[in-house]
Predict the structure.
Amino acid sequence: MAIDLTLRIGGEGGEGVISAGDFLMQAASLAGMEVVTFKSFPAEIKGGYALSQLRVSDQHILSQGDGFNILIAFNGEAYELNKSLLTPGTVMIYDTGSEADFEPEEIPGVIMYPVPMGEIAKRQLKAYITKNMVALGAAAELFNIPVDTLKESIRQKFTRKGDKVVQLNYQALEAGAEHVRNNLKKQESFEFPKPREKKDVLIIEGNQAIALGAAMAGCKYYGAYPITPATTVGNYLAELILGLGGFVYQAEDEISALGTCLGASFAGAKVLTATSGPGISLMTELIGLGIMAEIPLVIANIQRGGPSTGMPTKHDQGDLYQACFGTHGDAPKIVLAPANVEENLYLTIDAFNLAEKYQTPVFLLSDASLALRVEAIKRPDMSKVKHEHRMTRNGKADEKFLRYMSTESGISPTGIPGMPGHAYAATGLEHAENSGPRTNPDTRNLMTEKRWRKFDNIEDEWKPVEREGDEQAEVGVISWGLTQSIAKEAVQRLRAKGLKVAALYPKMLWPLPVKAIKAFVDSVNQVLIPEANFQGQFAEIIKAEVPIHDKLVKLNVYRGEPFIPREIEEKIEEIYPK
Amino acid sequence: MAIDLTLRIGGEGGEGVISAGDFLMQAASLAGMEVVTFKSFPAEIKGGYALSQLRVSDQHILSQGDGFNILIAFNGEAYELNKSLLTPGTVMIYDTGSEADFEPEEIPGVIMYPVPMGEIAKRQLKAYITKNMVALGAAAELFNIPVDTLKESIRQKFTRKGDKVVQLNYQALEAGAEHVRNNLKKQESFEFPKPREKKDVLIIEGNQAIALGAAMAGCKYYGAYPITPATTVGNYLAELILGLGGFVYQAEDEISALGTCLGASFAGAKVLTATSGPGISLMTELIGLGIMAEIPLVIANIQRGGPSTGMPTKHDQGDLYQACFGTHGDAPKIVLAPANVEENLYLTIDAFNLAEKYQTPVFLLSDASLALRVEAIKRPDMSKVKHEHRMTRNGKADEKFLRYMSTESGISPTGIPGMPGHAYAATGLEHAENSGPRTNPDTRNLMTEKRWRKFDNIEDEWKPVEREGDEQAEVGVISWGLTQSIAKEAVQRLRAKGLKVAALYPKMLWPLPVKAIKAFVDSVNQVLIPEANFQGQFAEIIKAEVPIHDKLVKLNVYRGEPFIPREIEEKIEEIYPK
Amino acid sequence: MELLQTPIKPKEYRSEIESTWCPGCGDFGVTTALTNIMSQMQMDPDSVLTISGIGCSSRLPLWLRTFGFHSCHGRALPVAIGAKIANPDLNIFVTIGDGDMFSIGAGHVPHAARRNFDIKVFCMDNNMYALTKNQVSPTSRHKKKGSLSPYGTLDSPINPIELMITYGATFVAQSYTGSMKHTTAMMKAATEHKGFAFVNLLSPCPTFNHEETFKYYKPRIYDINEEGHKDLSNRMKALELSDRAMDHYQESGSDAKIPIGIFYKTEKPVFAENLAELKKSYSSAYGSADKPDWNKIFDQYAPQQ
Amino acid sequence: MELLQTPIKPKEYRSEIESTWCPGCGDFGVTTALTNIMSQMQMDPDSVLTISGIGCSSRLPLWLRTFGFHSCHGRALPVAIGAKIANPDLNIFVTIGDGDMFSIGAGHVPHAARRNFDIKVFCMDNNMYALTKNQVSPTSRHKKKGSLSPYGTLDSPINPIELMITYGATFVAQSYTGSMKHTTAMMKAATEHKGFAFVNLLSPCPTFNHEETFKYYKPRIYDINEEGHKDLSNRMKALELSDRAMDHYQESGSDAKIPIGIFYKTEKPVFAENLAELKKSYSSAYGSADKPDWNKIFDQYAPQQ
Ligand SMILES: Cc1ncc(C[n+]2csc(CCOP(=O)(O)OP(=O)(O)O)c2C)c(N)n1
Ligand SMILES: Cc1ncc(C[n+]2csc(CCOP(=O)(O)OP(=O)(O)O)c2C)c(N)n1
Ligand code: SF4
Ligand code: SF4
Ligand SMILES: [Mg+2]
Ligand SMILES: [Mg+2]
């Protein structure tokens, strides 16, 4: 039988919750397992509730799962916050002894393994910070986690701190295991999948995938201002891009960050910025300039809870409206949204290519959960990666150059500083084909239509939608971003149960792939659109184009945590004809 | 028979085109006529094509009209740009003689009155700048414009420049009239309405009405940064508000402008800012803060052509999407749009009251044409003006104050610095009822729902919609902003012809008055939504809520000029069942 | 909310909201100094408005039982200005970070200073961005490492003291949160100053900044006022002194001393005074500002004969 | 586009787009000076990028047959920085107004200057906002009238020269567009300087500004370099000199002289040099930067044993 195990670690930020999870992740992929992580940081720098979750399987994994099989509770807060999920059949390893700040109740059917992790770390190892290792050691012993690979990943992380630190951590691991051997009896049958042949994978975090995708796409300039949860895109890119001849520029604010991106792109570079809602808000004016002057830009919005400063570390899909409609005036652009870490990488590459081809700003909408999710993805094959470059005139230097020539496609050949015979002045003013400012009605009409015409056939030129499930279904699910990966698991579960369910997974949200959505809607009796925002922003955007009002069921969470598959599954079952 | 006369003056910016129009406007209203003006400034500081148009009638006037009866062409450009509108029955007074730069062709049916305005001004009066007065004098003689009132308005304008200047202008006026008497023969029957009893009106420009409305609403702080076409709101307010104990603060940019408004409103003042698209774009982040911290704000967006710098002096209705959806996150707010100058005044007052009542930012969407439109409106009655004030707790100082208490209405009593026992720290972070930052799912859900609940019944609490026309109609028109005043004229013309036509005029665009729109849509067979933007932004917003996809016909202009009534009239006739 | 006892003790100026700062954070000293000063001056907490942007340091207003506004990153000064114009009687403290003030908020600073608003600005300068987990800020030394410049930044730092004097602030001082006495003295002098007052508070971040620590500062600090700088209104002298404030950043002069104390102080009419005068000249324009004669206002727009 | 003749004449640097400036506008002088300089230096127009924000002055790039970017209000510097980092070979001119630079763009200036990008900034200072029809700017004198402050502004002006020196610009000068010779000399010296160069160009607006006119400036202008200021790298001296640059704004000293010339000039590595060095140290990280060994990159993310 397939093994599908989810282990959650909860505790106070700074207690090693996140790093314990990372070691498990490393070890599991070293052992050739499939893995997906889910993490949640507190808003505080130190303290606050942190969560790290690992789902391992010998099969392909779609989402973070519905809950957990095993909880490792480092403190009372972790226990309290997860108590409701401790259902019969789940397991809890928890801190006990002299350092513990809580004492759990007994819950019928829940298997409890008390481990004095704090006490062992403090008294026996004289190093309270090894508490997470003691816990790991206990878990390893209980669930057959390959200790060698665990040690290997610990060694890699701590080796630069010296052998003493590595050994101390090994000891803590062993102490945890020993405590289990001496004091506890395994009362359930959970265990990690068996180690198997190592696959040729990369272990990548969401934001890291954007950074790597950008590098692979030929990005040579990244201008940004730090903001949670986007900063790490730049962290990952800073040295990588230098080795590729590019640069990460930390600007004085987001306006400047995007301004430098516009300048660098105008000068010919492929550019990226990553930010979150507040940063996008500040960039709004210059995004409009990119649209008016037709300058390629890739803008990653790692969404967090809004409005305003909101919840910087929490999951939310509330910035879709802004991406599509935030700029003043009639302002065409492209909006993409990846569903998982692998898509983060490949859609980033697509974003660069679309930006170059259509000479336009392209949004990439990720979010705080996807930013931190770690997956083991297949090693990319660079020979299969395509690179688009903006069309330049390459004409004779003595031919008149019309930068904004109203071509049939709406895309006009451009020039790059340094190219002879291509000099032109870009402007945010309405302009004539030669780029000179002009406000007469005919020019205005010509240019407005040209700017929009570029995108007339984008849905056909680039198939931005996937579909799965029954050709004619009772319920069809449309979702976007991280929610897709969760909806997918729900849909597959229901189909396994024999329900006639289908799903549509648009990767491009704007311009809306209307044809594909129309066709999908026609093929199902009800449409469920689950989204992690209050308004149901994508549902509304679809409704404006496709009259699904009667078929539509919205499902929204806005609590700062992603959907779990079961919520979508249950909603579909609820609306499914009985 | 009713007199309805439209006179257009066209020429180079700086030649007195606009001031000639203003004198006519003044004179006409002094004579008790109904008047509406339409003006268009060039983008250049000096030079460029300027247009001033006056429509006078003895009946109530709705819009700027379809074209003109009389053109006064100061130069060749004005002639060229208006040639196509010189249809049989129209009249052109034009510059001729030694200073003229053009010679018009004869157009069959068009009556031509050559007047050497430049020459008379330069040679006879030795003052080329009086050219516009010579033209006015000629027009006065031809069309029976009351010269006394014209002189009176000239006197009022120039009196502080000294009597010599006044006399010179009088002479120019007389010289123009004399030229007509001596050289031309009236060949048509156009004339101004007869002077009648003076009405108790105010002559007000669009932006001036916002300024006056704000003053009447109790605005005590205006923080802004100059931008065309919004700057004049502040110009009009600067001294007025000082006399009322308030202040106009010119900030270093729009971000700062809105930041100061937030601070002033937090401190208890009623505040306004006015800007245009680029300014709103920069304010986006702080608008979100106003929403999250629930701070009353009135934000007037005097729209111009976008995206980016676009067309600063041109008409456009392209910022509706941004007003409704521009801020990151799920961000509720109110969006109003006035249709004419009088509404500019009263909706501004409403905006202040709504901001206070709902503790929220309120947008007022005007535009570059409405900004410059002049109307004679009824003198307001201050005793009828209501003032809402934000609800404060007024509790005992020792009771626990929960600034963001989740009340049934969603509106929470607030406190103002200086009030004992109300101290709280506003924050853009998600927060608990006591205003402390909090990110747990329950609090998040509670607060998100509270923020939205405020607006659940706003359509019923404040009837933001007018309707006119047949109860069951073949065609129903929905429009917003300035386009309403034009659509109204079209609808009334068609109803006079006996067509079954109705119209809905929403004054609040967001939250969308869904009930009224649904009821209206149900009562008509087709829906026409004319808008001055490319995407049909309001139509799309409606479609998302009300499935009118099959009934809908969009009509869009995005050329930088408002609709004329005939365009809407003809479109309705075109889709009207034959 | 509890009723306050008179005299109000420092801890009564603290709110019920618990601090989220790390143990050992330099910013605790600023909170303590501020509540001490308010207590010493027996300020009515309901007349105090504490305003911040975003950052670790900017959380400070949340810990206080005064009115507070934790606004957006970089926007504390505009918010403060609006509040002060709307209600000149408020005592306004701006409590922010080096990044908030001199990076994203940099554009507001010269304009706030030159207008001489009566606002006290306390900048908690930890020489980097803490809340976003370790990036360089405008006050970071050349070559400092941050998450976006792990090789050491190419940038050279700004000099906050010199800038503020140049901008026209009428009170400019520096202190170090390792010395509660000096910090309190400087913040109090600023609070007592009438006009735009700026205190740069060297406030170590033990979690992320392992260079500019308490240990680093302690031996380097010296008090310029004690050591003879008394001619506080001499702008050129203040500039010269401030010019040396960052010498310790130079690789060559790494044991250079770090000046704390009042660099500059001058008297100038504050914005509110100028505005009050202006308002007075308009006060009878329509009868009275409070109960204006509206028809007198409307008449201005009526066609006149 | 016409082929260029060698040597390229000044007027060949002009584009086909016609100027919309008013007759008599001071900014014409800047355009002329710039085309003269480019011709004197025989710059390849295809290697020149002229960048501006929004304002009358900011229209300048449109009149040139170089690459140009008429960006958004206040954003010329960030755009210039991005372009310069992406292509250090470009010759970058930033041509903007006093409002664009010191009001809405104020936050970018210190950061551009302290990083010493090799960019030439020519600020056309007409002491007000012209394009929006007469408001005060940060360089407007106290009590100047503008449409939003018809009673005369309450603000005191900033001092552009002093600010730029404080910010770390490595070349700071002032000129006056009434003197084509001096304007050209200053702009040329800036262009020849390696590093961040700033020239404040007193450039009257005859349409709206009836105070700071050509007539006003002419008798007040004096050349500091001719009158003895030679020790250009002396920062303190430069600050002292600049301190007096706005004396003519004081009501008491209304016939004070107005200094033009080079205030400050120093040598410092430019950003591009530091960056080139940094890049070099990473250049063989993956084989080569141009043709990297991608598997070497991917290996960094592979679980290792
Ligand atoms: C518009 C915006 N951009 C970025 C951020 C992320 N951010 C929060 S605090 C901060 C820097 C804070 O630095 P500083 O002001 O020095 O405060 P510290 O944390 O060091 O006390 C940044 C970049 C934000 N909140 N808003
Ligand atoms: C975001 C934004 N705000 C405001 C404006 C309006 N605006 C255009 S130019 C200008 C001021 C220009 O002043 P300055 O830079 O001194 O140029 P000048 O016209 O005096 O040459 C303003 C406020 C704008 N274009 N964009
Ligand atoms: S991270 Fe640094 S600045 Fe922030 S609270 Fe902790 S110690 Fe203080
Ligand atoms: S308004 Fe002034 S600055 Fe603008 S073009 Fe005319 S003269 Fe020059
Ligand atoms: Mg800091
Ligand atoms: Mg200017």
